[in-house]
Write a structure and sequence with these properties.
about 450 residues, alpha+beta, MetI-like fold, 2 domains, 13 helices, about 10% strand, elongated, disordered N terminus
Length: about 450
């Protein structure tokens, strides 16, 4: 019969009944694969990381200490050029604008969209539409917005919207280039951009204001000009294009083949003060009724002859950087919304409901509870956007025309331009690359520490 040994288990093994511990002859087993197997799998990734990341960084630092030819050692000369050359200072200024504006706008819009999508039907479809630009490459997004920002309202969507809004509240009818004939017999003259009739306005006597300078083809479909016949006590006249297509006609007289200029603003002026205003009809005639007795002069203000509103010069030197930032926001706002919405779904609903029960308004709940609880997510999104805007290249290169690219330049684009885009100075380009790396590293370290803190 086999006797059962009684005893108790100790950290060193099993203690026999007699009191002396039994020797522990088995070592604890290792969980998972061996370290050598992990090294085998990590080796290819480390090899590629070294070839594509570590070596370029080390060589860029080395190359930045030499001149454009790579033969003469210049030390920190290229880094001094970064902070003294006007073109590179412009890139630094633009990058500061990007870092200050773009991440804040993207994060704010992402937060607003994430909060609002919780309160609407078809939230998934709305999120899909907002996130869809992320599926478009920055190169394609640049091409899209290059067309959006076209100056011509017939091609550019942005200016088409602006001109539509402008024309809704203000008429854009105008005849740029129209003017009276320049001779002593002309019945009207130009005075500070306005066209003024020479003859004083008298009741019952028509005032003739013939204009030239417009191609007849531009008035195709316009009504034929008509000689005005003002009644007793009325002041009237005609404004028309005194040109007959194909030649002919009588100068300074209304002919049947000539076209009236519709929609022109006409002012009745007395002692330098505008007493009444009207507009020409389709046939170019106008009439003032009810004017007090006195001497009047008929004037066409210069607004009639200004170029119509065609929107803003989005691709000009003034608005080019805000325009490109707008394209960047369009691409990344959906990405920020998805991340913030994920953080929003993790917020305890009990805290929100308790605040509402205590009488807090929706704005108070959002400002005092939602935003503080989302602060870690918002910070991660904000820092990630900063890293992205420091490296922005594609949108600036595609959207900004060559004539204004110096005004829209950023560090990443300047690095490519001076190295490979015709500059031929890889020493300065390497210095710009190292400078950009130095700017990005602190934000990367901050994000990594933040992720590690959240894992704990």
């Amino acid at each position: 019969m086999i006797k059962r040994l009684t005893g108790r288990r100790t950290p060193g093994g099993v203690q026999a009944a007699g009191g002396s511990p039994a020797p522990n002859t088995t070592a604890p087993a290792r969980l998972g694969p061996s370290p050598m197997l992990a090294v085998v799998f990590l080796l290819p990734a480390c090899l590629f990381l070294g070839v594509w990341v570590v070596y370029p960084i080390i060589y860029s630092i080395y190359r930045s200490l030499y001149d454009a030819s790579g033969e003469r050692f210049v030390g920190l000369g290229n880094y001094i050029t970064i902070f003294t050359d006007p073109s590179t200072l412009t890139t630094i200024r633009n990058n500061i604008i990007w870092v200050v504006v773009a991440p804040l706008v993207v994060t704010t819009l992402g937060l607003i969209f994430a909060v609002l999508t919780e309160r609407i039907r078809w939230a998934t479809a709305f999120k899909l539409v907002l996130f869809m630009p992320m599926a478009v490459s920055l190169l394609a997004a640049g091409v899209i917005f290059r067309l959006v920002y076209e100056q011509d309202p017939d091609k550019g969507v942005a200016n088409a919207i602006l001109t539509t809004i402008h024309d809704t509240f203000s008429s854009s009818q105008g005849y740029p280039g129209a003017r009276p004939r320049e001779n002593d017999l002309a019945p009207a003259v130009v005075d500070d951009g306005a066209v003024v009739a020479k003859q004083p306005a008298e009741p019952g006597k028509p005032v003739l204001i013939p204009l030239v300078g417009l191609p007849p083809a531009s008035l195709e479909g316009a009504a034929a000009a008509k000689a005005a016949t003002p009644g007793p006590g009325e002041i009237g006249g005609t404004v028309w294009l005194d040109v007959v297509h194909g030649g002919g006609g009588t100068v300074n007289q209304v002919d049947a083949e000539e076209k009236g200029l519709a929609g022109i603003t006409v002012e009745a002026v007395s002692d330098g003060v505008v007493k009444a205003t009207t507009e020409t009809a389709a046939d170019g005639t106008f009439t003032f009724t009810g004017l007090p007795p006195g001497a009047y002069q008929i004037r066409l203000p210069k607004s009639n002859f200004e170029e119509p509103f065609n929107g803003l010069a989005w691709l000009g030197p003034t608005l080019i950087t805000p325009a490109i930032i707008g394209a960047y926001v369009w691409v990344w706002a959906g990405f920020a919304m998805v991340l913030i919405a994920a953080g929003l779904s993790a917020i305890p609903r009990d805290a929100l409901e308790a605040a509402r029960i205590d009488g807090a308004t929706e704005w108070q709940v959002f400002r005092r509870i939602t935003v503080p609880l989302l602060a870690p997510v918002l910070l991660v999104v904000f820092v990630t956007m900063i890293i992205n805007v420091l490296k922005v290249f594609d949108l600036v290169f595609i959207i900004a025309p060559g004539s204004v690219q110096p005004q829209a330049n950023v560090i990443a684009l300047e690095m490519w331009r001076v190295s490979f885009g015709g500059g031929g100075n890889q020493g300065l380009g390497s210095a710009l690359a190292v400078f950009l790396l130095v700017l990005v590293i602190p934000f990367m370290i901050f994000n990594i520490r933040r992720f590690r803190r959240d894992e704990r």
